[in-house]
Fold:
Amino acid sequence: MGRIAARLIPILAAMTLLAACTSTAVMKTTNEVQPLERDAVILLVEPDVELSLLKAAGVSEVRADWTETGKANVLTEIETLLDEKGHRLVEHEIDPGNEREVQIVKLHEIVGATILSHRFMGQPLPSKRGKFDWSLGPGVNDMAETHDADYALFLHARGEYASSGRQAVAIGLAVLGAGGVSTGGQGAYASLVDMRTGDIIWFNVAFTGPGTDMREQDGAKHLVGAILKDIPL
Amino acid sequence: MMVAFVRNGCLAGLLVTAMAGCVGITPVTGPLDVDGAYRITLGETWSAYPRDTRTKLRNLTIDGDALNSLTFAASLEDGHTLIKTYDRERLLPVYRSDMSQTEVVEFIRDSLSVGGMADATITSLRPEPFGPLEGVRFDVTGATQRGLNMSGTGKAAIEDGKLHLIIYTAPTEYYFELHEYEVNEILGSIELL
Amino acid sequence: MRLVRLMAALTAFAVLAACATTDVDPLSADMRPSEETDEAGLWLRMDEAEDLLQQSAVVVRDPALNAYLDEVFCNVAGEAYCDDVRVYIVEQPYFNANMAPNGMMQVWTGLLLRAQNEAQLAFVLGHEFAHYRQRHSLEQWREINNVANASVLFSVGVAAAGVPNAAVLGNFTLAAQLYGYGRDKEREADAFGFDYFTGAGYDPDAAAGIWEYLIDETEASDSERKKRQIARASIFSTHPVTAERVETLRRFADDAETGRENEEAFAAAIAPFLNDWLADDLVLRDFGQHLYLIDHKIEAGENLGVLYFRRGEAYRLRREEGDFDRALDNYRKAVLFDDVPAQGWMALGDALQRRGENAEARAAYGKYLELMPDAPERAIIEAWLEEKE
Structure:
């Protein structure tokens, strides 16, 4: 899920990572949001996590074992963080037979890519000036009903970890004066959807440098802390 | 290998759009003249991409071009194609000045297919004035290759063998209806210049 | 320049060297790679591509057609491997089939449209199954990594560019394009594929036959480039077909026992889709190749209502001297057959209207609206009927 936008993550990471440390870019809806009168039930919609080995030539190879570990670590951290705030997280698998849900997820893919390319990448749309009002529409109600959910959280995360060969290339090139060879890093974007309206009320893009690692619980904690920064919950 | 290839392509694409973005996306509202041939009137503020010199298509959007896209062209001549390709030898759907209304809509549908719309299907065609011209109104459904359902509507007319057309497409889920009223108003506002 | 040539030579050498060291054992039935391997990574990525494919708008979901392809696949691969491979029918007008390492196989409708019998389909399925069983994707992946050379990536990229439309297809198809294999692997897949499909009792001539037909059809193309590609033996970049490969398959067939073609079963399975798939093919606007295909099918003598109608459509869009008359002739023939699609009447009406034969046009339109009460063109037709009242 979310692969169009997810494919942008490594590029964005490469661009941001020149600065190396953790960075986030929180965006909030300009629409009016009705306050919630109770602790929230939040659907976590099939988090899309993929961890790869970045090889010497710059080829990245997906690692099934790392992906599984990373995903589990990230889930635990999100759950802990939201639990501390008194909210309940419900993991939600998309049923491929549920046409409406599939459409909502695919719509979110496109909306996410649109936000990344027009807000984060700095190619603003004049028609959106002063507004952040992207929405998935009231069709999300169907998805909310099963769990009586108040919000849906969509998460896409990518991690790339350099092989020792890759690190050698980076250092070698740095010596030659050519910077900008990525030695990996972690990037993610997430959005929070208000299930009453379908509005994306909060959107964040976060990157953490090569020093952090979501394959480890601490690294996952660091990334999740960055990605859920300022979440209005 | 797949990743590396896709990523390079993507990066190049982004750079191109980023550069295009710097020169091009402008706000438009109110009356808009299309290549000196006809005028439409926009109710809301749209973002306009620069007119493509090859296809002569001009694209407007409100929420992002994957979420709503209003495409115009005016005075297209016999032999014109709506598809932008750097492959000069590529065989493509071509406009012919002797096309019937049904054939014009077929040409638009096939161009949408070649442009990447899966299952592009015309669900309705009906006569509808294009300003003072006899025009044809059509509705289309399809999907992105990844399976997001799309809806569209539009209008076309031939004036002295030259084709004018307006096509609106948006995801069926939420976005098509979001601006449907505005689009219908625009399609009703056509005046010849 | 000398440096470039030297680099090319070194690359070629490195590729050869890599081939020698990346050989892997065939997959046994029901086997999955263990988690920490590069192979598991390839599978994971392809599992995701497969999820996407399942939800995409281009998969043909018709149960009968899917059951038919599954049955042919199982005949060829044998019961043990029957469930390891999932065959997806993808609505794309190009001649193509491909195999991902995790067992996701794609057969494009442009291939089904051009195969002439079940035996030809069976050979293609056997060939693709051989790629799977011999783990060619994994070998290829390791070769690329061993060489770690941009020129290899580039050649892989070029393979993808060979199929038109690659840019607009979702990344599941792009991924498939990138799994184009080198000649050695194609030869190996031919040899295994041939054994599998003849072992299942199919006609050995079908293996060379499908390529021979395709080369003939391509020679009729309007595209100069496609014709040049035949000369360069690379019509299908993902499956480079060389004269040598076709000859080898011919020679295999000479030494093999005769088998069944199952032409009728195949024709019956694809008949319901013929009109749609030919319409998809016509969108490509290669009239030469398209008409060659239709003529070839008309000679076989089945589905004539559909085929005459589609031939009329091709002439109408081509618009060469005399094409409107040819189109009308074909529409007139088409409506004589029970299997003519309802659109045949609409097309006949339009063609007659163009000639000013309004009374006859009126009758054809009447028939169309009777067959298709919800026809999308109803308002247009009714407006015309009223005007000519």
Observations:
- Strands of chain C lie at 86-90, 97-99, 104-108.
